[in-house]
Amino acid sequence: MIKAVRGTRDLLPPDTALWNFVEDTVREVFRVYNFQEIRTPIFEATELFARGVGEETDIVAKEMFTWEDRARTWMDQLAGFEEAVKRARQDHSLDNVKLYEEFFAPSSYKGQSLTLRPENTAGIVRAYIEHKMWDRGLNKFFSIGPMFRRERPQKGRYRQFYQIDAEVIGPPSSGSESPARDAEILELVATLLDRVGIKGWTLQLNSVGCANDRVKFNEALRKALEPVVGKMCADCQRRAVTNPLRVFDCKVPEDQPIIEKLPRISQFLDEGCRKHFEEVQAILKVVGVPYIINDRLVRGLDYYTRTAFEFTHGALGAQNAILGGGRYDGLSEALGGPAAPGIGFAIGEDRLVLSLAATAESVIRKPDVYIAPLGAGMNGEAARLARELRRHNLVVELGDEAFRLKKSFEAADKIGARYILIVGENEVKADAFALKHLASGEQVTVPRGELAERIAKEH
Ligand code: HAM
């Protein structure tokens, strides 16, 4: 038997109803905050993530699905060339220069390193630069789709998972740097989690400063690490040299007491970063979004500056971050674009759905009515009725005239339909149908024209 690849999974009904409920709700919330959808490719040039997310992060160093996109072989190239000659002959457009170019086009023989996107911020910022979207002022994007990371699979952690991503980005003149944007994003997340029905979340907040602070902090961190790094894991020993901030990503239990004693970035914020962070907090207090400061939170991606945050949920166990995000004021420039401060977040949709699973029942809309055609020649009449009722937005399941009445009742029961509607010869003649409420057993005869209203009543 061929099975789904380790770390990937099928999303099946009824769970998919929960996924749709989440996505519908999220889209509604994004609409009122004036966010617009963006869809970028699920694979990109590897270099984008190496430069954007950072070579030293776990994501880039260990977890990416990367492949060398094969150059065309000489045989492929020859076949393509032959095809081009044939086409040119047919259209009487034999042009030697064009054919020469076709044969030697560099794109046809050079390979390229490609990567399945492990996250979407880098891709969205690439699109922002590529399409010169600074002309539009402040951009507010959202995006929903799959991401790929080669992590060790466990509950809440998959190799293909889904993110609901939001990014606010624009030139500094559009106000993209303002703490008001940070607070708005955080308030949006709080609203979103409340609207989908997640209870008991915690917002963990920190500021990871700017490039300015990072120099001083790295220096202090290196100094503090020097005497202890020999006792730490191999990854930390490497990080201490290449990118000391990443030591805070370490999950090795034995290293934690050492990390606990290291200096914190919050002690190194310059005046501008400190003020920015204070302003974000002041607005959160006014709008009533509760948070806790977690000065160990540095987030596992290199592009973050200033505000960094995670929303966690107790019910998730070890993988307790439902979402994470922060500001990335230098990312556009790191990717060769203009200054374009930005802030965003990505919800792990798999984890959001997991924390919602307890309330799953309530979001699934069961069929309103099961139509049971009774006896030969009734399938058509039943289909006609189904068509009429579905036009009224009722959820209708249609049986088969080959079923005996008992089997139809069992089928209606199994799918949890509220009503069963019998379509037999007598009913068709009278143009009125036997409608039975399955829970109470109450049965009435209802004329065709009143059926939809009658069935809809009990919503
Ligand atoms: P991240 O923290 O790497 O941030 O991922 C965001 C969320 O995606 C996590 O909090 C988690 O819920 C979910 N997630 C990550 N890896 C997995 C996995 N293997 N299986 C299931 N869920 C997972 C980012 O990706 C940033 N791009 C967020 C961002 C947007 N920052 C600014 N803008």
Descriptive report:
The chain is α+β, with helices and mostly antiparallel strands. It is built from 19 helices and 16 strands. β15 and β16 form a beta hairpin. The longest helix has 18 residues. The protein is globular and about 90 Å long. The mean pLDDT is 93. The site of histidyl-adenosine monophosphate (HAM) has 27 residues, from β6, β10, β11 and α14.
Distance between the termini: 43 Å
> Radius of gyration from the CA trace?
29 Å
Sheet with most strands: strand arrangement: 1-5-6-11-10-9-7-8
Count of separate DSSP helical elements: 19
Can I get a quick summary?
It is built from 19 helices and 16 strands. The chain is α+β, with helices and mostly antiparallel strands.
Please outline the helices and strands.
Blueprint: H1 15-32, E1 36-37, E2 43-45, H2 46-52, H3 58-62, E3 66-69, H4 74-90, H5 96-104, H6 106-109, E4 112-116, H7 121-130, E5 139-148, E6 160-169, H8 179-196, E7 201-207, H9 211-225, H10 234-242, H11 256-260, H12 271-287, E8 292-293, E9 305-313, E10 321-327, H13 331-334, E11 342-348, H14 349-356, H15 360-363, E12 369-373, H16 379-391, E13 396-398, H17 405-414, E14 419-423, H18 425-430, E15 432-437, E16 443-447, H19 451-456
Parallel strand pairs: 1-5, 7-8, 12-13, 12-14
Antiparallel strand pairs: 2-4, 3-4, 5-6, 6-11, 7-9, 9-10, 10-11, 14-15, 15-16
Helix pairs in contact: 1-8, 8-12
